[in-house]
Amino acid sequence: MTNHSSDRALAPLLRSPSSSTLGPLSSRSSISDAFPNPKLRRKTLALRSVAFVSAILAALGAGSITVFSLYGHLFQSRLHYTQFQINGIASAMSISMYLPVPVVGYMCDRVGPGPLSFVSALLLGGGYGLAAGLYQKGVEHFSAGGKGYTTFPPMVFAFVAIGVGTSCLYLSAITTCAKNFGKGRYRGLMLVAPIASFGLSGMVLSQVGSRILYERQPDGRKGDVDVFHFFLFLSILLAVVGLLGTFTLRIVDEQDLIDGAVEELERSGLLEGSEIFRRRSERNYGTVGPAAEDDEHAGILDPERDDETDDVYARLKKAWLLNAETRRFLSDPTMWYFAIGFWLIIGPGEAFINNLGTVIGTLYSPDTKSSATSAATHVSIMATVSTVARLVAASLSDFLSPSPQSQYIQIGAPSPIPLLRQKLSVSRVALFIAAALILSIGTLVLATGALQAHGGQFWIVSGSIGAGYGAVFSLTPIIVTMIWGVENFGTNFGILALTPAIGSVMWGLIYSAVYQAGANNSPSLTDGIEDDDVFCYGKQCYSSTFWAMTVTIWLGILMILWAWKGRNGWSKRGIVI
């Protein structure tokens, strides 16, 4: 039996129509847009619209993790945590958000986003509820003059639950949009809508905390965020959002997506080696060839065929396709260059977000603390600028960058392939590099120490880092879908999303070490402040860290350039990006 005859026998099997999918919630929701019944077309549009709105709400809720700087410094002053402990909580939250992402993405591709949204409701509601109780208990203990007590270990557990819940909710939202709107001309913008909402969430929630759920000082002025009530608010809000997504986040026409991807792989000649379907073909029909093909077509199209057999077959086909695309993704060298570059670029941004409050604190000595700019202000600036940057980057990607007609994996072609063209063409990789350079401007300005005692200009740092970080994070999933397709998006993007966790932990530890070393030489030690509550003031607390961050961002840019223009890079392979 030749490979060509094997492929011919396999092809009709892989193209067979079925409405079943592997996921329980999306398994019966495949309604074709091309179906002649207008009522069914309207139903399809309604399902997609509801799923889109639900995805936006889910992303808005998932962004609660970005406001850690709003209350992180209060863990230091109210619960007597050290800077290492605060970064330990932030790192645990980041690790638990990013580390499970490959598994979460894998499950999202295979069982659908709805079940993961339900898991997020349990984890986020429970995590913030536990954190609220622990914070209140710690504050009451120290307010009563107690010592030798810490809520640190269970607080880490609470934020681990928050991180995993955020991962489930966020990936459910963006996977829903990536797959439901993968065919449109503005698929980049539709994909980035929940990503932008994730960034906007930081601004909205920081304003809720600073303007509504705040502590009132003895003189009647607004104080810091009321952490206890803020955590309770997030617990209830995210539990409701997660439960809503359980019933509304679904992939419409998923089986059509799978069938189209299989046909694309068939045309590319990559169907060889599918033992599952070859054994099925030989077992059911015994022979291969034209007669066997006729029998296969008859068997597949037979209206009396058993529904259970159809369902099992559809599950096998979907699993085979997703596993094959995962292997191809992992075996692509350019993916690894891209992942390393993404890690080097995004890690500094993650660490800055988690430590923004303490970085601002280093700009002022204790006697000028009253004139300090607030962390809430710059959390809002970062969130707002990041949201705008995400939308602008996605819009530029849709309007200026070349796009292939197909939504499936790009195999690469030495000859021209059909494109959606525009008068001015700018590669998405060029946009990505520009965003990374903007991010490095913020770290460079901070590294020079130019803002020491000039916190009023800190918006330069928070604005540039927010813009660069937001644009990089919006362009990354777009690039993933353009090169490697949307059908296995959750798994592919989940693998890449491991890198921010590594970067966040690494830079969090480096920043903490530099901060503590600077604190040992800080004037505060001679000003009567007890050693247990040492704060660091001056550029020695952060300068060397941000110099190193700037250099690594530039190295990350070189890695991205190599994946694009290097040997056997995307450009050389004819990949449209």
UniProtKB/TrEMBL annotation:
Q: Which domain of life is it from?
A: Eukaryota
This protein's membrane topology, according to the annotation, is: Multi-pass membrane protein
Protein localization:
Vacuole membrane
Q: Where is the NFD4 C-terminal domain?
A: 420-561
One Pfam family linked to the record:
MFS_1
Listed under GO cellular component are: fungal-type vacuole membrane
Give the principal location in a single coarse category: membrane
Record keyword Membrane present: yes
Recorded GO MF terms: transmembrane transporter activity
Bilayer-spanning residue ranges: 49-72, 84-104, 116-135, 155-177, 189-208, 228-249, 429-452, 458-486, 493-514, 546-564
Q: Does the keyword Transmembrane helix apply?
A: yes
Q: Which UniProt keywords apply?
A: Membrane, Transmembrane, Transmembrane helix, Transport, Vacuole
The record, for SUPFAM superfamilies, names:
MFS general substrate transporter
* Family designation: Belongs to the major facilitator superfamily.
Protein name in UniProt? Probable transporter MCH1
